[in-house]
Specification:
about 375 residues, Peptidase S1 domain-containing protein, Peptidase_S1_PA
Length: about 375
């Protein structure tokens, strides 16, 4: 049975916790939803969702029903379970193979629930006015790398109650936007929800423990979390290998400007939107974790989509070579100009050699 781990706050100093909760409660006691909207505006064009004191489902439904970004009741946000080849552009060939790849990749997409704002967020940065405070905000990410843990497990359960022996554990790296999870402080207050595919999904939740790398300028971050759940690890690894093999068969199916976003808008079960790449955005590849691209696109997003994978197929106009798939970068900004959205810096898929594949298998088992 999948283990479900709930957020705990024992790692933070009690004094800081009390201060944060008092600040949060003082906002909520007013019953004024305007204060929540003010928190959302504190992120500029970024698209985290911010929750108040209501139950999570009520907050999510309220945000969905009162969304002002989409004027068509989220009609273009296709539920994960319903996505199929008919949702792809009509002139796209081999649509079944492409749809299968997108859904397989979507199984690696996670919802991120962060309950704290780091004291190290700089002035003028997203949520900077809430530094050191308890602020429930949500985003999206995707499983980027898996590996077998080495040494003592850094998960909260093992830290609080050190086992007599070192049990097996696995390290899961999740790619997201830096404005969603800024640093280690926030990582330790982050819950990662796997398999939130529909309202009846059996969700598996794992806690974050650290940030491996972050890049505020280009808005990318790698969050680390640890699990003892071998079934979870194997399920994710199977999906990653399936993506690896499926992508070999779909190059001819691609359009030179196809763009797909997979996210948890307003904290809802994952949705898929399809659009086109509109153009390039300026970024600093020499300073970025992901150095291939930063694009604007028409695929729709909403609050809660921050950090979501933006899958791109890019043709000769952008790369100077044949169509490349997939490019993946985290969704970062909404409505940057003319209704277009923009991702943080991303990278294109590079095929591994057989030797690298064998090394990865040996590392994980």
């Amino acid at each position: 049975m999948r283990s479900v781990v709930f957020t705990a706050m024992l790692r933070e100093p009690m004094k800081l916790l009390q201060k944060s909760l008092i600040a949060f409660v003082s906002i909520q006691k007013s019953g004024d939803r305007k204060s929540i909207e003010d928190q959302k505006k504190d992120q500029g064009l970024h698209e985290c969702e911010v929750f108040g004191s209501w139950p999570a489902n009520a907050e999510s439904t309220f945000a969905w029903d009162n969304c002002t970004k989409t004027q068509n009741n989220h009609r273009n946000f296709v539920p994960f379970s319903e996505f199929c080849e008919k949702n792809l552009p009509s002139h796209c060939i081999f649509k079944e193979s492409l749809a299968n790849y997108i859904k397989t990749f979507a199984s690696l997409v996670v919802r991120l629930r962060i309950n704290y704002v780091s004291t190290y967020r700089p002035d003028g940065y997203t949520f900077a006015r809430s530094r050191g405070a308890y602020l429930p905000h949500l985003g999206t990410g995707w499983v980027y790398r898996l590996k077998r843990g080495i040494g003592h497990c850094p998960c909260q359960i093992c830290l609080n109650n050190p086992p007599s022996s070192s049990p097996d554990w696995w390290d899961i790296e999740v790619f997201t936007a830096c404005h969603v999870v800024y640093d280690k402080q926030e990582a330790q207050w982050t819950s990662v929800d796997f398999f939130h595919n529909d309202d009846n999904s059996e969700i598996t939740t794992v806690l974050g423990y650290d940030v491996k790398d972050n890049d505020p300028r280009n808005d990318v971050c790698i969050l680390r979390c640890a699990t003892h759940d071998k079934h979870l690890f194997q399920t994710l690894e199977d999906a990653m290998w399936m993506c690896y093999y499926l992508k070999k068969d779909i190059k001819d199916a691609l359009l030179p400007s196809l763009c797909v976003v997979i996210s948890h808008p307003h904290g809802k079960p994952k949705k898929i939107t399809v659009g086109e790449i509109a153009g390039k955005a300026d970024f600093c590849p020499e300073e970025s974790l992901m150095a291939d691209f930063m694009y604007t696109y028409s695929a729709e997003t909403c609050n809660g989509s921050s950090g979501a994978p933006v899958l791109c197929s890019v043709g000769q106009d952008y790369t100077g070579s044949e169509v490349v798939w997939p490019g993946a970068g985290p969704h970062s900004w909404g409505n940057v100009r003319g209704g277009l959205n923009q991702c943080g810096s991303g990278a294109f898929y590079v095929e591994e050699t057989e030797e690298e594949e064998e090394e990865e298998i040996e590392e994980n088992y």
